[in-house]
Amino acid sequence: MRNRKGMTLVEVIVAMALFAIVMVTVFPAFLITNMMNNVSKEFMDANYYAQEELEQIYNKGKTSTMPDIVTWMEGRDFGVDKPKFVCEPQDDGAEICSRKVANIAYQVLFEYHPDPTLFSLHVVTVTVEITTGEYAGDRAVIENFMRFVPVVGG
Question: What is the predicted pLDDT for the residue at 74?
Fold first, then answer.
């Protein structure tokens, strides 16, 4: 029986059982990797949106005062599906500007620097939060110090 060609039924069943055991242990790793890729993509997108918003504010702030920036944000035209920012002054003189686009909520906080001698320096915090879907609640926060053009007489 040493010259036989092919495999017996027992050998085929053992090979299939070994393959099934390997697949059962390895397949969840593929699922977890895919889930981690999705989470990473959502987080990277949120970081990208926050960075993009901060860069636009930075570029506009090179030639504008902080009140001008707030006015500019309220008047920016983002198109039909992207509403303008709504800005609200706070009791401490800070401004919070926010808007929601699809499943992304933007919030931009303009705070004065705690040192009163640095009246044109602000802390600008951009928060981007995913509001719907499997990753709702995930957020990216970028904070930066920015010097705007001083307000005349301010």
Answer: 86
CA 112/CA 148 separation, integer angstroms = 11
Separation between Cα atoms, residue 22 and residue 24, nearest integer Å: 6
Domain map (residue ranges) of the chain:
9-147
Secondary structure (3-state) at 11: helix
pTM: 0.69
Q: Measured between alpha carbons, how far is 40 from 50 in angstroms, rounded to an integer?
A: 15
The dihedral region occupied by 137, where left means phi > 0, alpha psi between -120 and 50, and beta the remainder, is: left
CB 84 within 8 A of CB 96: no
For the chain, the distance separating the N- and C-terminal CA atoms, rounded to the nearest angstrom, is 101
